[in-house]
């Protein structure tokens, strides 16, 4: 495959025009949208308006006049379209970690009202650590008689669901390997065995079709700073299936989750639906950024987006093969396309040095300890030529031994 073939792919790419909606960094090939998405131009314009008009001029009236007060709901509904959720089940707030606390406590209460013997939260050893830390925190908060974390290999998750399992906490796409689990099958299996499922969509939302309602997922969480391009530390989202709303309660009972917050009543009365998952005042600047960023998805077919994402990853791996590098960098991602997320991860002894040397050449991928390198593909703004450039720079780094530079012997960056 030569550069001309690659450029042909860009010509027929249905998302080629979408690149123009992003503030693309100069002289960079950015393959790290699985950690922090690129800013959209609409976000920049919106934030300028929020700062220069809404906040600086309209001030307190903006809670009504610019609908600040409903941002968690309006942004939540935009996200709902991307995760296969009917209205009134998704809301934008807090971080994944905090939302997991709410989902875990709400779901445990629902299950244990029926069967108090179900105390196990089953998850995977290599789940993203915050997911596991939050279960550990909930176990401390509620006590071991209500919550015990059990960790198993991702490939054996379904086998371990039994009569003690209260919840299965799974991340659809593994942050390290990029492996995608079969969420629909997992939910069916959990429900057959009397357990509920909480799904972490951090690496799925905005990268591929997700069908929470169809799959009958019970609760889900996800972030907006990766494929949804909401910005660093952008607020997360939480989904709770409607069938659980009437039995749902969560202990972070702040006033924004009250049935009538502006009554200022001393008694907490939870809102009836998903609004109960709110706690405090939304971060208006951050949420406005997400709100604007989500508009790039208007009219986008997630099926087509998924196809481009897989094609980008196919082309990248094919180019590594052409350069005889597929033995040097050992794939840890699944061969089956359907089992892949939107990233390719490789094991390589000098992964940190390679990642740093690539950054010096303007190709941004990322490193995960102890020695993995991840290449994230964001089909809305990555071109096929980006992929060609990345593979070519990778070949040159290795040929010139730039990854062995003494500067990279010591790890001194966080990402
Ligand atoms: C799967 C997964 N869950 C959770 C998080 C982080 O959660 P939070 O939004 O609380 O930082 C990440 C990445 O940061 C992640 O990859
Ligand atoms: N959320 C992050 C942050 O606040 C700082 C640096 C990186 C992140 C990430 O998103 C990491 C990411 N979840 C991962 O897949 O590794």
UniProtKB/TrEMBL annotation:
Pyridoxal 5'-phosphate binds at residues 96-97, 128-131, 171, 200, 203, 225, 255, 281. It is an enzyme of class 3 (hydrolase). It comes from Idiomarina abyssalis. Belongs to the kynureninase family. Its cofactor is pyridoxal 5'-phosphate. This is Kynureninase. Keywords: Hydrolase, Pyridine nucleotide biosynthesis, Pyridoxal phosphate. NCBIfam families: kynureninase (TIGR01814). The modification N6-(pyridoxal phosphate)lysine is found at residue 226. Pfam families: KYNU_C (PF22580). GO terms for cellular component: cytoplasm. It catalyses: 3-hydroxy-L-kynurenine + H2O = 3-hydroxyanthranilate + L-alanine + H(+); L-kynurenine + H2O = anthranilate + L-alanine + H(+). Its EC number is 3.7.1.3. It comes from the Bacteria. Gene3D superfamilies: Aspartate Aminotransferase, domain 1, Type I PLP-dependent aspartate aminotransferase-like (Major domain). GO terms for biological process: anthranilate metabolic process; L-kynurenine catabolic process; L-tryptophan catabolic process to kynurenine; NAD+ biosynthetic process; quinolinate biosynthetic process. One of its GO terms (molecular function) is kynureninase activity.
């Amino acid at each position: 495959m030569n550069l001309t073939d690659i450029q042909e792919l860009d010509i027929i790419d249905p998302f080629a025009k979408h690149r123009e909606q992003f503030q693309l960094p100069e002289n960079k090939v950015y393959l790290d949208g699985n950690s922090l998405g690129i800013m959209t131009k609409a976000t920049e314009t919106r934030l300028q308006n929020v700062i220069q008009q809404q906040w600086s001029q309209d001030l307190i009236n903006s809670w009504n006049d610019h609908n600040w007060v409903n941002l968690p709901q309006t942004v939540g509904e935009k996200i709902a379209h991307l995760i296969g959720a009917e209205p009134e089940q998704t809301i934008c707030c807090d971080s994944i970690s905090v939302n997991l606390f709410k989902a875990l406590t709400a779901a445990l209460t629902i299950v244990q009202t029926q069967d108090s013997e179900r105390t196990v939260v089953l998850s995977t050893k290599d789940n993203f650590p915050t997911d596991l830390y939050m279960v550990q925190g909930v176990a401390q908060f509620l006590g071991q008689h209500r919550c015990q974390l059990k960790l198993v290999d991702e490939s054996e998750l379904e086998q371990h669901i039994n009569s003690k399992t209260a919840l299965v906490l799974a991340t659809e796409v593994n942050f390290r390997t990029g492996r995608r689990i079969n969420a629909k099958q997992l939910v069916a299996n959990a429900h057959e065995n009397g357990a509920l499922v909480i799904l972490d969509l951090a690496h799925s939302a905005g990268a591929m079709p997700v069908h929470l309602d169809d799959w009958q997922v019970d609760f889900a969480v996800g972030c907006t700073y990766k494929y949804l391009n909401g910005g660093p530390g952008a607020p997360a989202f939480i989904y709770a299936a409607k069938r659980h709303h009437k039995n749902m309660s969560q202990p972070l009972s702040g006033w924004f989750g009250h049935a009538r917050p502006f009554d200022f009543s001393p008694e907490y009365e939870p809102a009836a639906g998903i609004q109960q998952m709110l706690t405090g005042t939304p971060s208006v600047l951050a949420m406005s950024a997400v709100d604007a960023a989500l508009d790039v998805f208007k009219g986008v077919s997630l099926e087509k987006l998924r196809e481009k994402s897989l094609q980008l990853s196919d082309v990248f791996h094919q180019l590594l093969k052409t350069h005889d590098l597929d033995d040097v960098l050992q794939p840890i991602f699944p061969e089956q396309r359907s089992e892949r997320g939107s990233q390719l991860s490789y094991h390589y002894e000098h992964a940190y040095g390679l990642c740093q040397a690539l950054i010096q050449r303007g190709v941004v991928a990322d490193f995960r300890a102890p020695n993995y390198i991840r290449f994230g593909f964001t089909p809305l703004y990555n071109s096929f030529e980006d992929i060609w450039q990345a593979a070519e720079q990778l070949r040159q780094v290795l040929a010139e031994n730039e990854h062995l530079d003494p500067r990279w012997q010591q790890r001194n960056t966080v990402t």
